[in-house]
Design brief:
369 residues, mainly alpha, elongated
């Protein structure tokens, strides 16, 4: 069984009670407390020593104690709080690792402490949703929030992440951290696509000397491709409707996005988009869209205020998407889209003048890219 202090340790302290020697003693007692298999009497003695050392005037001594007790699961709670509330040099490693501290302790610290202490808490291996919410609400810097967002052990709700984007969407470190999180909700992924697209547009204008129009056009195409790609196979209809409603609220439910979805064979997105834009229940929208005649789709299309001169293009794309099937091979979505577009062009080329046909071909080629 390990002893807390040897006779040599005691003699050394008596002869030279310097900060360095006291720090060394703190490390030795802390290690013995955690790993030495001490008896109950010896543990009580060690705790008495700790209570003296947490009041030591030298930061070096308290810091040594913090580093060597940060993983001690049986440390008395009052000692844990003393170390957690100490100056940053002492408290940071303890805040990051101690399992003795409760959520209540940590939330109190997050609400009142410095950004450095908040960031230490945000690095913890496990962070409950209650604690994560406190960090989101009281975080004093983008780096604190970026650390939390990048922590796979942090329980962040959809509401939490939405708040993070509201407050820190302009921070590159925050958005980069969010992108790395697994299983992001569709609504959050779409917002991230929009935020990152805007940053890319600004980069193209400022660093690559593209005109606003050229940069916006390029980014719009990329954003729409990414947006459609967010919808996984087999996604629930309710999730699609929520996703489309968010696009509508943000002004990103554009005719080109809807047409791109049809060309990719995403009928559920098309149905939800027309329902949202025309402000009618999804079940009614489906009945109109799938009406065997021409009147149903035309009625809801016009009510959705989509471009009248593109009605025949949407009709042709919708008909083709319903008739074709995915082949199940690699890049089958791209091949499916190419077939839809080919059918659309074949069907409408007789109805358009050469100038409009050239424009349509260019737009459909962009959708297929």
């Amino acid at each position: 069984m390990a002893r807390i202090l040897t006779e040599n340790d005691v003699r050394k302290l008596m002869a030279d009670p310097s900060a360095d020697n006291r720090a060394t003693t703190a490390e030795k007692v802390a290690d013995a407390f955690q790993y030495g298999g001490l008896s109950r009497t010896e543990r009580n003695l060690a705790e008495q020593i700790f209570r003296l050392m947490v009041k030591d005037a030298e930061i070096k001594v308290r810091s040594a104690l913090s580093r060597h007790l940060k993983t001690a699961s049986e440390l008395p709670h009052d000692l844990a709080l003393s170390l957690a509330r100490d100056v940053e040099e002492v408290s940071l490693p303890f805040l990051e690792s101690s399992v003795v501290l409760s959520d209540t302790d940590l939330i109190e610290i997050v609400r009142t402490a410095s950004a450095a202490k908040q960031q230490a808490v945000a690095k913890r291996a496990e962070i409950s949703n209650e604690l994560a919410s406190a960090i989101v609400d009281h975080g004093k810097s983008g780096e604190v929030i970026a650390t939390l967002a990048g922590n796979a052990g942090a329980e962040l709700s959809e509401k939490n992440i939405a708040q993070i984007l509201d407050k820190h969407g302009d921070s590159v470190s925050v958005t980069n951290s969010l992108v790395t999180r697994a299983n992001l909700p569709l609504s959050i992924s779409e917002r991230l696509v929009a935020v990152l697209s805007q940053k890319f547009r600004d980069f193209l204008v400022q660093e690559r000397d593209l005109t606003d129009e050229m940069a916006t056009d390029l980014v719009l195409q990329a954003r729409e491709r990414a947006t459609i790609g967010l919808l996984p196979a087999g996604v629930k209809n309710a999730d699609v409707i929520d996703f489309v409603e968010q696009l509508g609220r943000s002004g990103r439910l554009t005719p080109s996005l809807i047409l791109r979805a049809i060309c990719m064979g995403d009928i559920a997105f098309f149905e939800a988009a027309l329902a949202v834009l025309s402000k009618i229940p999804i079940i009614n929208a489906r009945q109109l869209i799938h009406d065997a005649g021409e009147l149903g789709l035309r009625t809801i299309y016009e009510r959705a205020q989509l471009p009248i001169d593109q009605m025949h293009v949407f009709r042709a794309a919708f008909d083709a998407a319903r008739e074709l099937e995915y082949d199940g091979g690699e890049r089958d979505r791209q091949r499916f889209s190419a077939k839809v577009i080919e059918r659309v062009l074949t069907k409408v080329e007789q109805e358009l003048d050469p100038e409009n046909l050239d424009y349509l071909i260019k737009k459909l080629q962009q959708l297929a890219a």
